[in-house]
Amino acid sequence: VAGYTAANSENGYAARFAADFSTNANPLWTATWPGIGGPDAFQGLLASSSNLVAVGYGVGRLVLTAVPKVLAVELRTSDGGEVAYRRIPPAGVFAQNGAEAAQAIAVSVENGTNYWYLTGQAQNGADNFGRLFLAKVRPDAGTEWVVTDADEAALGNLGTMQSGSPYSAGQAVVAQAGFIYVAGRSDDSGLPLAVLRKYDAAGKLVWAA
Question: Which of 65, 104, 172, 184 is the most buried (most CB within 10 A)?
Fold first, then answer.
């Protein structure tokens, strides 16, 4: 499991944590990382063939701005130790007032590769609302591509209700057979809606529901 704690008394910031349990629910290990200069939080976890991948958002550790950035951390399955710590500021579609704000909620790994697909919510300067995003991240933490609901709405690729929605977020992602599927929610005029997206390997929207 992975998540975040309440703000602690040591520095006043939330801390990331991860824990592993046996099939009998006995704890095997627990790892915690206090936020330094701001909160860090895990919101999604994936067990890959070799290690764990935890994603969320980070404001602390080595960040020079208080704006959240996508956080993706590779952890050892044996003890939860960090293998790679990646704070990922994706493409300029996330920009708002000269800053980038985004949080990852779920992650999937492309079979046979070290490419990660992250989904969640990004702040988009064009409409000032949080929008669903999908990003393909390379092993070096560089961003291969990023797409958002705001981009697709501008292209007329989403339905009338969803293109007018002031809020959307990706909450689950699966990469399979060369396509990426994202499930999440949107909010149109205060009415929550389930959304489903299919993208091809280049990040092009195939269909939206």
Answer: 104
